[in-house]
Write a structure and sequence with these properties.
By secondary structure, the protein is α+β, with helices and mostly antiparallel strands. It is 34% helix and 14% strand. It is globular, with a radius of gyration of 13 Å.
Amino acid sequence: MTSSLHPDFGPWAASVAELFGTRILAIAALCVTPRDPPTAATILEVNTAPEWVHHTFSREGTHDIATRILRSWFDL
């Protein structure tokens, strides 16, 4: 799903992370269409300790979550 989101979801998610004082989180949100900006998105759940293993070993294997986390932690 992540790859099909409107680009504005990135800054939107970053602002949610800032509210929780974390750089890593998972957000479950409801929106009309993920290809539109998140102006009317509703947050259903925020998980500040998300499980990322299922993204790493998914059938598509499209998201290198471990690298993104390490880069975030070490400002790489």
